[in-house]
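Example S7 (structure tokens).
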């Protein structure tokens, strides 16, 4: 983050630390520090794969606080490319793994969710 701009500034001024080079280095450090502070204050933007549990409904009748278990259904291959099935299976497995790290929510295993692949059953089933 600091190294490439610092190297470019240093070599473009032929190794001399004149006023322009020092000002550019200070701007480099300020810019890099601002980036670091931004990512520290917004950790999910740094790791978009981080699981976030969102409240799905504003309706009080659909209170999710009583949720005790959850099942991740297998993904449907909308592309129709059979060679991409391994990617969908990996995403499904990874999501189940991440959901399993949540406290107080039991995650249904992949083996139990695979029979629902390519079915048109209602959600309550």
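Recovered sequence:
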């Amino acid at each position: 983050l600091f190294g490439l701009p610092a190297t470019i500034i240093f070599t473009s001024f032929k190794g001399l630390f004149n006023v322009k080079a020092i000002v550019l280095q200070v701007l480099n450090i300020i810019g890099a520090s601002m980036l670091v502070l931004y990512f520290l204050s917004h950790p999910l933007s740094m790791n978009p794969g981080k699981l976030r549990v969102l409240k799905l409904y504003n309706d009080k009748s659909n209170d999710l606080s009583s949720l005790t278990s959850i099942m991740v259904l297998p993904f449907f291959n909308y592309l129709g490319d059979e060679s991409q099935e391994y990617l969908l299976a990996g995403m499904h497995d990874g999501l189940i793994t991440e959901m399993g790290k949540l406290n107080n929510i039991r995650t249904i295993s992949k083996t139990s969710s695979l029979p629902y692949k390519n079915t048109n059953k209602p959600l309550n089933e």
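Notes on this example. The radius of gyration is 24 Å.
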